[in-house]
Amino acid sequence: MAPAGVPRAKKGILERLDDGEVVIGDGSFLITLEKRGYVKVGLWTPEAVVEHPDAVRQLHMEFLRAGSNVMQTFTFSASEDNMESKWEAVNAAACDLAREVADKGDALVAGGICQTSVYKQHKDEGRIKKLFRQQLEVFARKNVDFLIAEYFEHVEEAVWAVEVLKELGKPVAVTMCIGPEGDMHDVTPGECAVKLGKAGANIIGVNCRFGPWTSLRTIKLMKEGLGAEGLKAHLMIQSLGFHTPDCGKGGFVDLPEYPFALEPRVATRWDIQKYAREAYNLGVRYIGGCCGFEPYHIRAIAEELAPERGFLPPASEKHDSWGSGLNMHTKPWIRARARREYWENLLPASGRPFCPSLSKPDI
Hints:
Elements: H1 13-18, E1 23-24, H2 30-35, H3 48-51, H4 53-66, E2 70-72, H5 80-83, H6 87-102, E3 108-114, H7 119-122, H8 125-142, E4 146-152, H9 155-165, E5 172-176, H10 189-199, E6 203-207, H11 212-228, E7 234-239, H12 269-281, E8 286-289, H13 295-304, H14 306-309, H15 332-335, H16 340-345
Parallel strand pairs: 1-8, 2-3, 3-4, 4-5, 5-6, 6-7, 7-8
Helix pairs in contact: 4-6, 4-13, 6-8, 8-9, 9-10, 10-11, 12-13
Binding site for Zn(2+): 208, 290-291
GO molecular function: betaine-homocysteine S-methyltransferase activity; S-methylmethionine-homocysteine S-methyltransferase activity; zinc ion binding
Pfam family, one: S-methyl_trans
């Protein structure tokens, strides 16, 4: 037992997953902070950690309160090829903010890297690994708990990322931004998972580019690929918080609504409860979200999986299960909505009578 007055050490990411615990990731930073006026579109680089740290801290806090077990550093595209001389200060500040908030709860800090802007140009393995290694050096100095390589559309580059991150000796998660058709070189999801598993990734999955139901299909194919090769790895899913059944191989970035008119596609909290349950039933134990995933979506995951986790998040203090708080409403037809069956079977209207239900990707 730990001495009185001394906090117990937090369980590591692999300890939690090996014990069958549900790990809940966080959600959207880039798109959410752009809407709030702190991030500029284009390169989507995270200067906000230096320019507006209170905004980033607040969003971390909201995800923690909603049930997130992981505070991922806001370091998406924070490599030298995208940020030039700013990259080191941004990575360091992002680590400090994530650690500050994680220490307020039972959360871990994950240092995050993503695909580079130079891979498509020259595929210089040495140059690309150097970019990854620069960020890794900051993560090592800041002693993050584990590492995430995310948002890779080419498995070759994702493998290079895993190989670099393994150098630190900490657990490595890797997620690809692909759908059921596979990566941009037509490597299938199952083959991608196998390559990443053989590279040494401890946690393998998908993030971003596709909505919940497409991402679930992709992670199922990854699981099947790993199983066929006899490889073991924990599974991870962090889908979009948008419905995108009409996007092509490139995902939501090819939809004409991206990035400024996606609001009609936002998933409801009930959609996300269903997503969480289906992911859990597939054997996925690291479940979170990416672009469009607000704190209330993370709370929906935590509430859906509360029986398995054994507790509710702090944010559920203001949210009764399946709308049961509506029992207090003064209007009887609204009180009638205070039941699970109502919200599970609702088909929400968009309120846009002349809009099509689906779009055609630009490419």
